[in-house]
Specification:
The chain is α/β, with parallel strands linked by helices. The protein has eleven helices and 13 strands. Helix 6 links the parallel strand 5 and strand 6. The longest helix is centred in the first third of the chain and has 21 residues. Bound molecules: uridine-5'-diphosphate.
Length: about 325
C-alpha cells in the first residue's frame, strides 16, 4: 500500500515507518521537522521520501497525496507534552486540532479515505477505576488531552459525512528504542522519565528528580503503562486490517501492566549498572496516581499483542540507543 505518515520524522513515526517498510509498503513522510529529525528519516525511508512542510499547508498535503498515489494516511504529527500544552494552549490547539482539520480537507480533496491517527490516554483524564477501557468517559484534565479529544470529535463528524474509515490508537506511555540501536527517543528538552533517568547513568545529569513519592500507590510513586515503541508501531499495522468505512474505532495501546517511577528507576539501575542517584521532589501538576490500559479490545479485535512485556526489556533497548548515541541523532 502507498502510505503517508505525518510526523514520520518523530519518535513513534520513525519506528512506524520502518515497520511498514519491512512489511513491503511504500512509505512517504510529511513533517515540518519542528520536533522530528531528518536523520531518522534518512535511516528509515530515505530523504527522497521526505516532504518538509507544514500540516497547515492543505494544498501541499493534497499535492503529495495525489502525486504519490497515497491510499492510507497515518497521522502522528502533533505536540504531545502535557506541561507545554498548559503554558502554550493556542499552539497546541493550532497544531493538533487545526492541523488535523487541514489533513482531513486534503484527504477529502485527494479522495483518500483511510486514516489511522494517534490519540492518547490523556483523553480519559483521571479515571477513578483501573484498568482503563475504551468506553470510559472522555474527560481530559489538560490542554493536550483536550486537543486530542477535539480531534477525535472532528473525526467522528467527518465519518458521519463521508465514507472515511478511521482507527484512533490511544497510546499509553511510549518507551524504549529500536533493538538495532539506530532509532530512538531524542527530544529537546527531554521531559520523559526513561531518557532522563538514563541520562543520569550517562553522566549528563546529576540525579533523577522523582516527581512526588506520596501518591496513593504501593511505593508512593506514580504508576504508568510503558509500551515499547516497536509494539506501538506494530499496532498501526494491525489497525490497517480493521479500517471500516463510516466508523471511528478506538483502541487502547498499552501493555495492561502498571509500573511505578521507582520500579522504572530500579530497572534503569540494573540495566545500566550505574547507581543513578535520585531525589524525591514535589508533584508535577496534572499527574494522576495510576494509569494503565485494559488492552483486551486491541488484543481481540486488532490481533495485536505487545512483544515487550517487562520494563527491563524496554529499558534495555532504550539503554542501547542512549549509550550508543549519547547526543541522540547528532551523534550519528
Ligand atoms: N517523572 C519523574 N521525573 C522526571 C520525569 C517524569 O518522576 O524527571 C514521572 C512523571 O511524574 C510521571 C512518570 O514519570 O509520573 C512518567 O512521566 P513522563 O513524562 O515520562 O510521561 P507522561 O506520563 O507525562 O506522558
Amino acid at each position: 500500500m502507498n502510505i503517508l505518515i505525518t510526523g514520520g520524522a518523530g519518535y513513534i513515526g520513525s519506528h512506524t515507518a520502518r515497520a511498514l517498510l519491512e512489511q513491503g509498503h511504500k512509505v512517504c513522510v510529511f513533517d515540518n521537522l519542528s520536533r522530528g529529525h531528518k536523520e531518522a528519516v534518512q535511516r528509515t525511508v530515505g530523504l527522497e521520501q521526505l516532504t518538509i512542510a507544514s500540516l497547515h499547508d492543505t494544498d501541499r498535503l493534497t499535492q503529495v497525496l495525489l502525486s504519490e498515489g497515497i491510499e492510507l494516511v497515518i497521522h502522528l504529527a502533533a505536540f504531545a507534552l502535557v506541561g507545554e500544552s498548559q503554558t502554550r494552549p493556542e499552539m497546541y490547539f493550532r497544531n493538533n486540532v487545526l492541523g488535523s482539520q487541514s489533513l482531513l480537507s486534503a484527504m477529502n480533496q485527494a479522495n483518500v479515505h483511510k486514516l489511522i491517527v494517534s490519540s492518547t490516554t490523556a483523553v480519559y483524564g483521571t479515571p477513578r477505576q483501573m484498568p482503563i477501557t475504551e468506553s470510559f468517559e472522555r474527560a481530559p484534565v489538560n490542554q493536550y488531552g483536550r486537543t486530542k479529544l477535539e480531534m477525535e470529535l472532528s473525526l467522528e463528524h467527518a465519518v458521519s459525512q463521508s465514507d472515511l474509515a478511521v482507527v484512533a490508537l490511544r497510546y499509553f506511555n511510549a518507551a524504549g528504542a529500536h533493538p538495532n540501536g539506530d532509532l530512538g527517543e531524542d527530544h529537546h528538552p527531554e521531559t520523559h522519565l526513561i531518557p532522563i533517568t538514563l541520562q543520569v547513568a550517562l553522566g549528563q545529569r546529576e540525579q533523577l528528580e522523582i516527581f512526588g513519592d506520596d501518591y496513593a500507590t504501593p511505593d508512593g510513586t506514580c504508576v504508568r503503562d510503558y509500551v515499547h515503541v516497536c509494539d506501538l508501531a506494530s499496532a498501526h499495522i494491525c489497525a490497517m486490517d480493521v479500517l471500516s468505512s463510516g466508523k471511528v474505532q478506538y483502541f487502547n495501546i498499552g501493555t495492561g501492566a502498571g509500573t511505578s517511577v521507582s520500579e522504572v528507576l530500579d530497572a534503569c539501575r540494573k540495566v545500566s549498572g550505574h547507581p543513578i542517584p535520585s531525589v524525591a521532589g514535589i508533584r508535577r501538576s496534572g499527574d494522576p496516581d495510576i494509569l494503565y490500559a485494559d488492552n483486551s479490545k486491541a488484543v481481540s479485535e486488532l490481533k495485536w499483542s505487545p512483544k515487550y512485556t517487562s520494563i527491563e526489556q524496554i529499558v534495555e533497548t532504550a539503554w542501547k540507543w542512549h549509550s550508543e548515541s549519547p547526543s541522540g541523532y547528532r551523534s550519528g
